[in-house]
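Bumping my old thread because nobody answered last time. Still need a sequence for this structure:
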């Protein structure tokens, strides 16, 4: 008898622990117990999970949102634990309760799990168990249940009988006309996915009137969601139907009184263009695009500016150049000098992409003047976006033409009296060098880069040394050996000690990218020479440089050349020189100990 009691105790144990933990005051403990539900279900077995665990969970759904969210998530993967698809209906009651709670994230997760569970039902079970759940949610007193209902239509509709389909369409219409904006918003957000599963005749007769109504809603949050549905609907309809069923609403959205709705049209514009085809684009979307390009709201102009390249790329090839030149470029020209920096930056990130579409002549005549304006823009992002995309213009008009037109502007900026402007150009130089190639760089830009090393502003000299390192990473150590190291080494003999210091900073940077050979052969002798410099600032920077470049030197070179120099500096009369020399000696000793180990 005792052993049989023990078996009963063991079998009750998982559910007893769960009940205990779910009643605990500690939220974290309750949360952990929910996350272990699948383990508990496995211990109980399928039958007891159906008859005890699920009813218990359904009855005790009153908790913190965090716990409810975890429960909604868990139940979506519970079908196999209740006995497979033929028992999936047991999961509906707890999920239905969760789909009506106040917290949006919990409801959304419950609907997501309901969709998974509904898809696992057979067609017959779907009508018997899921459709009545959907209908209860649709007629719920609270808006929370009605918003959740919107997410279930597209899963149920394809697998139910014709009479039930008619009921579902009627229910969806009811939600589209609901008095609560939150419900209409939910219906608008699910209209596109529902449209994809409804037969074309009912799409025209039932759903499009709903779409038109939602697009004219008094709440802009509903209208902007109708724009997303517009893309899905346009993709499903033949061209002639798009023209009279969708376009009037689209035109109205593009000139909506709310900037948020117009912004959504701008965001979805290329998707809409692909959905409606070239003819409707030419007649209707081009004027709408123009309208948005001169919108009063900067956010809308910025959103549509990012679509300029893609919109033009998707135009009918036969009329592409003509439409861009006559209908798009005049508006783009105005945006180049837009008062808002975000708009100008958005345009600068895509405008170069028009070059391959318009060809060499139009690029030189019409686009290059715009690029020049953008290159001189006060906003650094605009300048960066132009410089970063020069390669696609280079491919169209060639390096010669590019250098004649844009290079003078870059040189002018590089020598600007405002040091921040010079600094910005230095930061773009590696990107520019990568796009223009080594030969062109050596001819036209190398002199500029060397000039910055002698700038009177420290921030410029510092940025110029980092620029050197990035250029060597781009063009290689061999290029550095021939093209820039000889010019940097000359600086070590300059009368101005600041130039000698800059030389050391450069050698610091270059050792990392030039490797042991070049560092030992070319860089080290100059560093050692400067150890006898009359200026103490130069001498202590020699100590710092030797510490920095020592990882790139062989131990024999360190022993015979670096250490004696540091010992000499450690006996210097200047206190700072001694300090940095002793630091370098200690650091090098630590590194060599590690090497030996």
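Sorry it took so long. Here it is:
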């Amino acid at each position: 008898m005792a052993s049989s009691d023990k078996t009963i105790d063991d079998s009750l144990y998982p559910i007893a622990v769960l009940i205990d933990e779910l009643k605990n005051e500690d939220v974290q403990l309750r949360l952990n117990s929910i996350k272990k539900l699948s383990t508990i279900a496995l211990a109980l077995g399928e039958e007891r999970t159906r008859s005890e665990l699920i009813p218990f969970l359904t009855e005790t759904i009153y908790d913190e949102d965090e716990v409810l969210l975890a429960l909604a998530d868990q139940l979506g993967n519970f079908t196999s634990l209740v006995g497979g698809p033929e028992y999936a209906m047991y999961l509906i009651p707890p999920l239905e309760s969760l789909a009506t709670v106040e917290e949006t994230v919990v409801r959304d997760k419950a609907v997501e799990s309901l969709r998974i569970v509904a898809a696992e039902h057979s067609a017959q079970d779907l009508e018997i168990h899921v459709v009545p759940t959907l209908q209860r949610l649709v007629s719920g007193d609270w808006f929370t249940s009605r918003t959740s209902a919107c997410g279930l239509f597209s899963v149920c509709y394809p697998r139910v009988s014709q009479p039930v389909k008619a009921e579902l369409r009627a229910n969806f219409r009811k939600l589209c006309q609901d008095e609560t904006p939150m419900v209409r918003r939910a219906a608008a957000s699910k209209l596109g996915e529902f449209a994809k599963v409804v037969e074309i005749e009912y799409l025209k007769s039932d759903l499009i009137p709903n779409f038109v109504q939602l697009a004219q809603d008094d709440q802009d949050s509903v209208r902007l969601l109708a724009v997303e549905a517009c893309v899905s609907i346009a993709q499903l309809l033949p061209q002639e139907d798009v023209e009279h069923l969708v376009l009037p609403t689209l035109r109205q959205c593009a000139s909506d009184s709310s900037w948020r709705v117009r912004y959504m049209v701008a965001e979805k514009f290329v998707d809409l263009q692909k959905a409606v085809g070239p003819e409707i684009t030419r007649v209707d979307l081009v004027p709408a695009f123009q309208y948005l390009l001169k919108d009063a709201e900067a956010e809308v102009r910025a959103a549509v500016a990012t679509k300029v390249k893609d919109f033009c790329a998707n135009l009918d090839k036969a009329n592409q150049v003509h439409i861009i030149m006559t209908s798009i470029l005049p508006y783009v020209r105005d945006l180049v000098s837009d008062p808002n920096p975000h708009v100008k930056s958005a345009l600068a990130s895509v405008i170069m992409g028009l070059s391959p579409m318009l060809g060499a002549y139009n690029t030189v005549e019409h686009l290059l003047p715009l690029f020049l304006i953008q290159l001189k823009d006060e906003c650094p992002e605009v300048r960066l976006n132009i410089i970063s995309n020069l390669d696609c213009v280079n491919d169209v008009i060639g390096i010669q033409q590019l250098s004649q037109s844009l290079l003078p502007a870059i040189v002018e900026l590089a020598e600007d009296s405002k040091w921040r402007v010079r600094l910005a150009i230095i930061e773009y130089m590696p990107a520019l060098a990568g796009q223009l190639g080594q030969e062109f760089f050596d001819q036209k830009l190398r002199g500029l880069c060397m000039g910055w090393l002698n700038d009177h502003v420290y921030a410029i000299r510092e940025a110029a040394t980092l620029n050197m390192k990035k250029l060597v990473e781009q063009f290689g150590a061999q290029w550095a050996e021939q093209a820039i190291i000889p010019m940097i080494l000359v600086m070590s003999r300059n009368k101005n000690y600041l130039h000698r210091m800059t030389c050391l900073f450069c050698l610091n940077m270059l050792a990392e990218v030039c490797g042991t050979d070049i560092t030992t052969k070319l860089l080290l002798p100059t560093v050692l020479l400067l150890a006898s410099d009359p200026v103490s600032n130069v001498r202590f920077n020699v100590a710092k440089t030797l510490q920095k470049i020592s990882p790139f030197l062989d131990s024999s070179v360190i022993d015979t050349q670096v250490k004696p120099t540091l010992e000499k500096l450690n006996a210097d009369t200047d206190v700072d020189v001694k300090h940095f020399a002793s630091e370098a000696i200690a650091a090098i000793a630590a590194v060599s100990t590690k090497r030996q180990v």
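The radius of gyration is 35 Å. Let me know if any region looks off to you.
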